[in-house]
Write a structure and sequence with these properties.
The chain has 20 helices and 5 strands. The longest helix has 23 residues. Bound molecules: flavin-adenine dinucleotide. The site of flavin-adenine dinucleotide (FAD) has 27 residues, from helix 9, helix 11, helix 14 and helix 16.
Length: 459
C-alpha cells in the first residue's frame, strides 16, 4: 500500500491541482492535509477577514473531498513538524505541495525538504499552481537578470507561454484510517470580521468565475475603472487562497476572446509579474525594491493624519469612500487602492509600509506579493516607471466616479449632495457646508505636492 500526503497551502481547490493529481495517480491512498500554521499566526498575518474566508475554503474543500470518498485532515502548529508527524503516522513516502514565492514559503519548503529527507521521505514541489506561469519560467534574455523589473516586456513573454489544460479532480480518493481528521475551523468562530466579507470556497469561486465569464468579462476594458459600477471580477480572494486556478482563469478568459478578455488577462498577468519579482527579491516585502532615500513621515510625526486615513476621515471624499469600503467589505476596488495609497504615501508623505500594513490587516485578498509590490509601485520605490506621479484625489474622483455614486454609497455624511459636487464638499455654500458632519481636507493638495517635490528633490 503506497501513501502520499498532499500539503495544501495557497491552493485550496480540487480542480486543476497538480499536487493532488500527481499524488492520487502515484499512490493507493492520499492524505489531503492543511496545517493551521502557528508562524503565520505569530507574524500577525492571520487577520479576521482572511481567517474567516479561509475557514469557508477549508470546509468547502473538505466537502468536495468527501464527495470523492476522501476528507481533509487538519493540524495546528509548525508545518514541517506536522507534515512529518502525519507522514510517519500514515506511512507516507511522498509529500506533494505547490511552490510559493515569499521568503517564508521558500524557508518552509527548505525545512520541510530537509526534515522529510532525514526520514527517508521525498518532497515534490509543483510549479504554476499558485500563479499561471511559474516565477522564473520566463526571464529577460541577454541581460543576465533573474527576473523582469518592467511589466510590458514581461507580459509579452508571459503571453507566449503555453499553459497546461486544466486538470480534472481525481474521481475517487482513499484516505488512510490512521489520518485523524482534526477540527475544521469555522467562520462563526472568528470575531472582528468585516460585515460585507465575501464567501470563500472553491464552489463560490467557480460560480463567480462562470458568472464573470458570462456577463462581466466582455465589457471589462471599458468598465474596470468605474468605481460605482463595481464591474471587476472580484476574483482576487479566490486567487489568493487558490480556490480558482490562475491558469484555468487565463485559459477561460482567452477562450472567450475580445477586448475585455485581453484587458483582463493583462491584469491577471500583473499578479504573476509581482510574484516573480518577489520570488527573486524576497526582501521587497519590507525593503524598497529600488534604492531611494525617502525621509518618510511615520506614526510619531503624522499619527493623527494616518489615523484619519485609516478611518476614512481625510476630507477627500473618494479616498474616504475607498477606505470605508475596505473596512466594510475587506476588499477595495483597484482604483480606490491606487488613490488611497497615493494619498497616504505621496500627499501625506507617510512611509508606504504603514499603509501596506493597514491594507494587510483588512484585505481578504491581502497578499505579500501583490500588496507590498503594488504599494511600492504607488510610492515610487518599486517597478513604476513614473515614480514621482502624484494622483489628485479630486480629479480622480470626477474622472472615475463622475456622478459621485461611489462616494454617496460609502460616505453617508455626504449622501445628500447630488452629482459630482460630492467630490468637493468644501465648495458648498456656507450654511450647507457647516451642517455636514464631515471634516475639512487634512492637507491642501498644492501644499502636499510641494512637500512631496521638495522631499524628492524636484523643486
Ligand atoms: P480584476 O480587475 O477583476 O482583476 C483580475 C485579477 O487580476 C485580480 O483578481 C488580481 O488577481 C489581478 N490583478 C488585477 N490588478 C492587479 C494589480 N495591480 N496587481 C496585481 N494583480 C492584479 N491585489 C491582491 O490580490 N492582493 C493585494 O493585497 C493587493 N493589494 C493592493 C494594494 C495596492 C496599493 C494596489 C494599488 C493594488 C493592490 N492589489 C492587490 C491589486 C488589485 O487592486 C486587486 O487585485 C484587484 O483590485 C482585485 O479586484 P478584482 O479581483 O475584482 O480585480
Amino acid at each position: 500500500m503506497t501513501v502520499s500526503v498532499v500539503l495544501y497551502t495557497s491552493d485550496l481547490r480540487l480542480h486543476d491541482h497538480p499536487p493532488l493529481c500527481a499524488a492520487s495517480a502515484a499512490s493507493d491512498e492520499v492524505v489531503p492535509l492543511f496545517v493551521l500554521d502557528r508562524r503565520v499566526e505569530e507574524a500577525g498575518f492571520a487577520v479576521p477577514n482572511r481567517r474567516a474566508f479561509l475557514a469557508d475554503c477549508l470546509r468547502d474543500l473538505d466537502a468536495g473531498l468527501r464527495e470523492r470518498g476522501g476528507r481533509l485532515v487538519i493540524r495546528t502548529g509548525d508545518v514541517a513538524e506536522e507534515v512529518c508527524r502525519v507522514a510517519a503516522g500514515t506511512g507516507a513516502g511522498d509529500v506533494h505541495m505547490s511552490g510559493g514565492v515569499s521568503a517564508y514559503a521558500h524557508a518552509r519548503e527548505e525545512r520541510l525538504r530537509a526534515e522529510l529527507e532525514s526520514q527517508g521521505r521525498r518532497l515534490h514541489v509543483h510549479d504554476a499552481v499558485v500563479t499561471a506561469v511559474a516565477p522564473g519560467a520566463v526571464r529577460p534574455t541577454g541581460s543576465g537578470a533573474d527576473h523582469f523589473a518592467v511589466f510590458t516586456p514581461y507580459f509579452r513573454r508571459w503571453s507566449q507561454e503555453r499553459l497546461r489544460d486544466p486538470l480534472a479532480p481525481p474521481r475517487a480518493l482513499r484516505v488512510p484510517d490512521a489520518a485523524l481528521s482534526g477540527e475544521l475551523p469555522s467562520r462563526k468562530g472568528v470575531s472582528g470580521v468585516s460585515p460585507g466579507l465575501a464567501k470563500g470556497g472553491e464552489k463560490a469561486g467557480r460560480a463567480l468565475l462562470t458568472a464573470w465569464r458570462r456577463s462581466g468579462l466582455e465589457s471589462y476594458a471599458e468598465t474596470h475603472d468605474d468605481l460605482a459600477g463595481d464591474a471587476t471580477s472580484r476574483l482576487s480572494p479566490h486567487l489568493h487562497f487558490g480556490t480558482v486556478s490562475p491558469a484555468e482563469l487565463v485559459g477561460r478568459a482567452r477562450g472567450a476572446g475580445g477586448a475585455g478578455a485581453e484587458a483582463f488577462v493583462r491584469q491577471v498577468c500583473w499578479r504573476d509579474f509581482h510574484h516573480q519579482v518577489l520570488a527573486a527579491r524576497p526582501a521587497a516585502s519590507h525593503e524598497n525594491y529600488r534604492t531611494r532615500q525617502d525621509d518618510w513621515r511615520d506614526e510619531k510625526e503624522a499619527g493623527d493624519e494616518i489615523e484619519a486615513w485609516r478611518e476614512g476621515r481625510t476630507g477627500y471624499p473618494v479616498v474616504d469612500a475607498a477606505m470605508r469600503q475596505l473596512r466594510h467589505e475587506g476588499w477595495m476596488h483597484n482604483r480606490g487602492r491606487l488613490l488611497a495609497a497615493s494619498f497616504l504615501a505621496k500627499s501625506l508623505y507617510v512611509d508606504w509600509r504603514i499603509g501596506a500594513r493597514h491594507f494587510l490587516d483588512l484585505l481578504v485578498d491581502g497578499d505579500i506579493a501583490n500588496n507590498q509590490l503594488n504599494w511600492q509601485w504607488v510610492a515610487g520605490t518599486g517597478t513604476d516607471s513614473r515614480p514621482n506621479r502624484v494622483l489628485n484625489p479630486v480629479r480622480q474622483g470626477h474622472r472615475y466616479d463622475p456622478d459621485g455614486a461611489y462616494v454617496r454609497r460609502w460616505v453617508p455624511e455626504l449622501a445628500g449632495i447630488g452629482g459630482g459636487a460630492v467630490h468637493e464638499p468644501w465648495q458648498l455654500p456656507e450654511p450647507e457646508r457647516a451642517a455636514l458632519d464631515y471634516p475639512a481636507p487634512l492637507v491642501g493638495l498644492a501644499d502636499a505636492l510641494d512637500r512631496f517635490k521638495q522631499a524628492r528633490g524636484l523643486l
